[in-house]
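User: Please predict structures.

Assistant: First:
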Amino acid sequence: MGVYREIGPEEFQDLQGRILYEDNHIIVLNKRTGEIVQGDKTGDEPLSETLKAFIARRDGKPGQVFMGVPHRLDRPVSGVTLFAKTSKALERLNEMLRKGEVHKTYWALTAGKPPKTSDTLTDYLTRNEAQNKSYVSKNGKEARLKYTLIQSTDRYCLLEVELYTGRHHQIRCQLAHMGCPIKGDLKYGAKRSNPDGGICLLARRIQFIHPVKKTEVDVTAPVPDSWKGVQG
């Protein structure tokens, strides 16, 4: 009996096809909406465990596989997700994230057009643990992001978002507060859900200096098929 569950051939091929970057120290996966990155109270299998099982099969590892989680994406969000394959890489990535040395860019499809084509938003957010939701509040923690309007249609706008802080539900909350709720995000004011239960927020790109090799890593996730009819 192996340490991890058996990964079937279809799931194996699917995971293989979603790897955007990999070396001996890190792996970047294209996360789908509905998947969780790290274990939570639902008991659903997180991607960190799925990847352990995948690597155990692919590389023929009989023992434990290390898979560290330096950052997380919310369940309904898709796109670039970074994992550490060694404890050294995880420790260094955690420090880089604390120092703001990992640059993350998001794309969001929103209802409502922003007041400017590009702007930096500064709000103060308070997290309600019971509701798993954040609110703009005078007594909250500072949240800053920059958005740029890429294109728009009669119904939706495609925004590129750069995060300067990492607050709970920051992009979802700040864009909704601006009058631009993300498509499918019922929690923050969208009028209807998406068929897949996700929201149209994509972790589009990640850029950083490799924590071990010290080379530049620049990874971009593809736009989900479900967006292509509404992008414009």
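Second:
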Amino acid sequence: MAGFYTDATTYDIASALADTESEAYRLLIRDIDAIAAHLQELKDAGVPVLFRPLHEAEGGWFWWGAKGPEPAKQLYRLLYDRLVQEHQLHNLIWVWNSEKPEWYPGDDVVDIVSVDVYPEAGDHSPLAARYTNLSELVKDSKIIALAENGSIPDPKLMKEQDVHWSWFCTWTGGFLRDGTHNDVAFLKEVYHSAEVITLDQLPKWSWL
């Protein structure tokens, strides 16, 4: 199950995309179509999907980013075209997951920009610089999200510093339970904050 890591697979995305007649490219399309079948089930049920493919590509630790920005962007656009144009999956909200301009696939295929940040345990800063990077990337024209985090940014500091993460998604395990990244008192403060909207406060969402 670790085949998505660069060092656990020999799959070469640049080579696959360079030859659309190759077995590697055929397998790529096969997998995209398999994903489409599951997303179709959600479409049929009227469920909109925050879809964040090819996350953390610029890190290089996943195969989709191992060959640099151009193959990663090409793959993202292929995925978009295949799912939206070929499979007519219009229930997808496309979330890009990098703040680096050279990796950005384009405004026409991105709805939301995001970044994953894991500060030191107990560091609840609002991550203002990372937010600004994303805002500048899209000229303040798109929703900005903290797609993954360890320590949760303090809502009070976010408000003070004009940082508006549309959502945060704290990683599981110790990040929530070890008492050092986010202690219980802080978690209660965050989820009872007037600045934080929780699931029970959201209206019912449907793309239908």
